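#struct-queue
[09:14] JT: dropping the first one here, sequence first, then the structure tokens:
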Amino acid sequence: MPPKRPRRDGSDQQHGAAGGKKETLRDRRFDAVNAGVEEACQEVEEERKQLAEEKARSIAEAQEAAIKLKADAAIEVDEMRRKLQEERAALEEEKAAMEKAHTFQKKKVLLNVGGHRFETSLQTLTSVPATYFASLFSGRFELTLDAEGTYSIDRDGIHFRHILNFLRDAGSFKLSSEVTEGQKEELAVEAKFYGLLDRMMPYYAQERVGQALLQRACLTGTNQELRTAVAQARVLVFEIGSTTPFLTDEFQDVQFAISDRVVNGSPVWAASSGIGELFVYRGVPAGIDSGMMVIGDMAGCVEGVDKYSIFNTTLTGDTGAAPTDLPTDMWVSKARATLEPEYAAAERIIPGGNVVWVPSMRITVVHGLRDGDPTMAAALR
């Protein structure tokens, strides 16, 4: 029997329609999944490309930095090499100069000073700056040697040994006590020629002033004048100041040296250190002041002028006095010599006045004639 044909009733049609919808839905889902996968793959690919580009860029930057670092390092190495070469050249130059100087300084020098022959070295002769020999062997002058290779100096050769001994050991040189006053005067002339007087005999000029004071007092003075001259000759150089911060720098810790100048019948000590021009001298020997010892500038240090900044209230009378004879607690000061705060608070010598007491004033003797000096010995007798 032939097979039966399928029935084409409504149920078959409904079944076919349902199957078609399922296939369509499945196809749509498949397409959606594919689209999502493709989109995800594209994003992954984009990220991969970005990563690759960033990696390539980083590598390029690293290579560029490495090249720059290498170039900078090369420049730095070249600079270090150049500096090293310069330092080496400078060192070699300095070494050569030192060797030359060493050879120069150790070179034996023969001198003929006034017919007296001496042998020394350039190191000794040029050991003290700003002297005759430092200038002579500075290289600025053409020097001439005699046939025996000797430098001739037309000066007194008898005292030159003292000059040479000082140059050999300037720091501890002491003139022998056996040198007489006459020989000392001759030596001073030679030391001055060689530019060494102030260093060899630092107080020579002041000693001459002290000796002149004593000689004059011995010849024509009274006993009082003689005692005053002795006191002054013992204080040829002194330092004065306050041990407290009371005076201005101009008047604090100033060293004074006696000079050959006389004002109001008494010697003048001139400042050899400190600020400005200051002098210690006796004031006008008349009136109530009666020649008090004062400290002032050039304007006041004039015969018959009564102008100063610091003075000692002790009356010295007509004979004058040495600064060390005066009581240290009797010094007074005007405003110029006193620090402003101290001046404002200081005790006035006269209530309401402009002069104040200077506390803790001191005078320290730096140099004076010894009792063994011939003129001092004669005055003491």
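[09:21] JT: and here's the second one, same format:
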Amino acid sequence: MDVLIVNAGSSSLKLRLLGANDELLAGSDVSLAAVGDWLGNRPAPDAVGHRIVHGGVEFLAPVRIDDDVVARLTALTDLAPLHQPKSLHALDAVTRALPDTPAVACFDTAFHARIPAAASTYAIPPQWRQRWHLKKYGFHGLSHAYASRRARELGAGPRLVTCHLGAGASLCAVADGHSLDTTMGFTPLDGLVMATRSGQIDPGLVLWLEEHVGTPPSELAATLEHRSGLLGLAGTADMRELLARDDEEARLAFDVYIHRLRSGISAMTASLGGLDGLVFTGGVGENAPRVRAEACAALGYLGVGIDAPRNESGAGDREIGERAYVVAAREDLEIARQTRAVLTTS
């Protein structure tokens, strides 16, 4: 089954056409308006797999898309106002170009849908939790699912902490292929320091800014989402640029980033009751040896150790030391796997 993978970005679509053996037949980033032309110049896929950021409490597994599913996905927009509309616009554009091709929605939240209540429940009144489904949802689930499965193929044990480190960043505690905890929460703002997102922050600080400074909610949201993280600390959201600098702001930003990363890894390990493998993936996780080395430097007590030559050189999926691995981010392979599974069993 040839599968077209659709991953919606802020202003374009990442389209990847995978063959029956997951070989890349074609791939490009295109605008919504150009989807029809791009698809018209290539063999028609047998199926389409869409990355959908939020499945809410309704979608706990991939699902074949029909009009009812689209309506239910649209109703979830309030839970992910920055991401869900992009996914829905992409879905509409591809459906218009391929109206008769079966399509499957694959959710970033679904991998975390069954984490224990102790890890997903906020200590807030039940009226809030039940009325608005306020809970930890977690994100990057497609990446965490693939990275953990691939690490097991490389020889890692069953208890893994997967580190998806890119512009967005999150950790996941994975036991025997199942998510037990993760650092992102009700929204993708929680957890690690990211490129432009603040990560974990005292909610009292936000309330203080609103009450005592008069900062409107829209400004708070824009600042925490787009003007914080590495950008807010050092004036750049690019880890490569940050690592090339040697000034006080850059050093502080890197130290804060690593401190939060180490703390998060330790917390995820506690959820697992031990650690058999630490897996780095994503743009930063794959391409920044210094980040991997510094993250692991204080984790010897978990049995993690970096082998410097293997960490600094080499390519592809590999073991880089004691209980430490690098895996290329391949959400497309996970989406293709889920799409085929849904369509061959329905």
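[09:30] RK: nice, looked through the second one.
[09:31] RK: The chain has a mean pLDDT of 95.
[09:31] JT: good to know. The radius of gyration is 20 Å.
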